[in-house]
Design a protein that fits this description.
158 residues, disordered N terminus, alpha+beta, 16% helix, secreted, Transthyretin_CS, Immunoglobulin-like
Amino acid sequence: MAALRLLLLCLAGLAFAAEAGPAGTGESKCPLMVKVLDAVRGSPAVNVAVKVFKRTADGAWEPFAEGKTSDFGELHGLTTAEKFVEGVYRVELDTKAYWKELGITPFHEYAEPLPAALDPVLSPQVVFTANDSGPRRYTIAALLSPYSYSTTALVGAP
């Protein structure tokens, strides 16, 4: 139980640190930012592929943005405030490729929070509604290990 509390505290700290602005860049007003930490090595997770999808009116997922985390484990500039309109978004992290690159075989072949018949996914994902009560800034933070992952979100004023 104490380990779980420590893990959650670390993840919350990661998200709040991201609120101050990204390390090493001048981009502090991104409407959507992703931050990934490697819990095994205690360092930023570098080069994690991130894909963002937006749900369409018919319920399908349409590609919205993509990129890779920086040397700071952060991904900025995914979108602009004008393009990041109200809607349901899905963020996927390619954690399997990240661990394989480090020579580690992860436990998860894939994580599938939704039934395969509805939404087949090959990596951890976060699905959320954005900007339903006006424009906001979103930081999606993830803490990774080969055997588990945890995510949290920090939502703030634009």
